[in-house]
Amino acid sequence: MKINNSLLNFVNGMLVTLPSSKTLTLSWNFGSMLGMVLIFQILTGTFLAFYYTPDSLMAFSTVQYIMYEVNFGWVFRIFHFNGASLFFIFLYLHIFKGLFFMSYRLKKVWMSGLTIYLLVMMEAFMGYVLVWAQMSFWAAVVITSLLSVIPIWGPTIVTWIWSGFGVTGATLKFFFVLHFLLPWAILVIVLGHLIFLHSTGSTSSLYCHGDYDKVCFSPEYLGKDAYNIVIWLLFIVLSLIYPFNLGDAEMFIEADPMMSPVHIVPEWYFLFAYAILRAIPNKVLGVIALLMSIVTFYFFALVNNYTSCLTKLNKFLVFMFIISSTILSWLGQCTVEDPFTILSPLFSFIYFGLAYLMLFIFMSSKLLFK
Amino acid sequence: MQRAVVQGSKRGLAALAGVTAASGMGLVYALENSVSASGDNVHPYALPWAHSGPFSSFDIASVRRGYEVYKQVCAACHSMKFLHYRHFVDTIMTEEEAKAEAADALINDVDDKGASIQRPGMLTDKLPNPYPNKKAAAAANNGAAPPDLSLMALARHGGDDYVFSLLTGYLEAPAGVKVDDGKAYNPYFPGGIISMPQQLFDEGIEYKDGTPATMSQQAKDVSAFMHWAAEPFHDTRKKWALKIAALIPFVAVVLIYGKRHIWSFTKSQKFLFKTVKGREPPKAQ
Predict the structure, then answer these.
(1) InterPro entries under this entry (chain A)?
(2) Which CATH number fits domain B60-234: 3.30.1180.10, 2.60.40.420, 1.10.10.10, 1.10.760.10?
(3) B122 labelled as ligand-binding?
(4) Structure confidence by residue, pLDDT tens digits, B103-112
(5) DSSP-assigned beta bridge partners for residue A216
(6) pLDDT bucket at B36, cuts 50 / 70 / 90
(7) Active site residue A344
C-alpha cells in the first residue's frame, strides 16, 4: 500500500520495506545494539547530571553523594560507567565487522561512522575526567597537553581548554558542558549514519544483483534486533555483579595536583592508542601517529571499488589486524621497561602496516578484474 | 594428485598456525607474569572472603566487629567522611544502637552564639574526623596524612586482600633497610616503608560478642567493615543481579521463538526450477 505523506514514505522505505539480504547474521546486530546503548547512556547520564557539581572541590564528593545518598544513584552510576565499556565493546565489534565485509565501500556510512567513533572517544575521555579522581586529573593533564603540538594555535587552545594555566576546576566545568552536549550531537550524526546506511542497505557476504531475492527489513530484522535485549540483560547482571572490575583503584582516590599516581593508564578502550603514542619518543610524531591510528581509515573511503573483494585474503588481514590491536592494548597497560619498549614500536608498525596493506589491496584488487 | 598436494599443504599450514598461536600464547603468558612480578611490593594472597562470590553477601557480624575495631583503633587517626551514622540503621545496627554510637562521638559544632563547641553526635552526623584539616593530620603523623577510609577498600589494588595483608604484614626490617623514627617496614606497602606502625595486636580490643580478638580476626573484621563502608549497596546489587539473571532464560526463549516465527516463511522457502510452456530450452540440433 502507498501512503501519500512523503515523510512517512521516507521512513517506511528505510525501516519497513527496505530490501535486505537474507544472509545478514547476528554481526549486523552490533549497530542496533550500539543505538540502544547510546540511548541508555544518554538517559543514565542525564539523571546523574541532576546531582553532579563540576567544581574542583566538590566534584569527587558529589560523585560519592550520588553513590551514598541519592536513591538508587549507585545503580545509575554503575550502569553509566559500565555502559561506556559496553558501548566500546560493540563499537569495536562493529568496526571489525565493517572491515571483514569491506563496508568501507559504503563511503558515506564509513565516513560518518569514523566521525562518530572519534566523537565517542572524546566523550568517553571527558566523562573519565569528570569523576575527578587521581587517574582522571592526571589523564586530563596528559591528554590536553598533547594539543600543544598544534602549530601556531596549540598553546592558545590548551590554555582555552584549561581556562587557566593548569587543569583546574574551570577545566572541569568546560568538560562537563561538553560531556553533556556532545551526546546529542552524536545522536544526530548516528541518525545520519543510519539514513546513509538504509539508503543503500547493508553490505553482505552474498552478492545479489538487484532486489528480486531479498526480504523486507521489517519484521524480519526487527525480530532479529530484538535479540539485543538478551545481551542487554546480561550486561545488567554483569554490571551488578562486577561493578568496578573494568576500572582502576585510583578511581576512588580524590584528585591531588600535588601527587601523581605511579602509573597513568587510560581505560581499556584507549590502550591501543596509548601504546602507539608511547611507542614514539617524540611528542609531535607521537601525537601524529595517535591521530593516524584512526584517521588512516578515512582513506578507505577515497577508493572507488564496489565489487572486487578478495574475501579470503581480506579475512586473513583483518584477523591479523585484530590480533595486533589486541596486543597493542595489552602493551598499553604494561610498564615502560624492557621488553615492552621494544614491542610497542614493533606492533605499532605492524598495526599501520596491516592497515595500509588492506588499503593497498582494496585499491589494487579492482585492477585484477579489469 | 592435485587434490592430495592441496590437502597436504593445508594440513601443514594448519600445523604451522597452531604452533605460531601456541608460541604467541606462551610469550604473552611469560610477559604477563613478568608484569605481575614488577613493582616494589609483595602481592597479597587471595583470601576467601564471605562476600567474594558473585551472589554472596557480607558477613554482617564481621562488619559489626569491624566497626568496633575502627572505632577503637583506626578512628584515632583516620576519618570516614562519606559515612553517616544513619547509614548504620537497619543495615548493621538497629536504630537504637546507631543512636547510641552517635551519642558516643564528640562532634565539632557551633552554638547559637557562634562559639565553637563539642556536642554529642546524632544520626545525621558524619563519623568524625580526628583532625581539623589535612595539614594538621600530616603534621601529627610525621608528614604523612592518614587517608580517609570511606572508599579505601576499593581505592587500593588488591582490595580486601591488600588491606588484610597490610594490617597483618608488619615484620622486622631486613638488614640494610633504613626505617626512620615513627615509620615501620611492611613488605605489602609500595616502597616497603609505611608511616603507619602496627596497630592490631592479639587481644588489643575486646569484642562485645565474645569473639576472640586475635590480630588476624581484627584485620579480617575491619577489612570487611571497610568494604561495607565503600559499598553499602553491595548486598542489594547482588540480589538484583540474581533476580535479573533468573529472568534471562524466559526472555531469551520468547525472543528466539518470536524471531523464528517471523523468519519461518523465509527459512522454509524452496526454489523450484521448472520449464514453462513456450519457453523450453532449445533442442539440440
Answers:
(1) Cyt_b/b6_C, Cyt_b/b6_C_sf, Cyt_b/b6_N, Cytb/b6-like_sf, Cytochrome_b_N_euk/bac, Di-haem_cyt_TM
(2) 1.10.760.10
(3) no
(4) 989 898 888 8
(5) A19
(6) low
(7) no
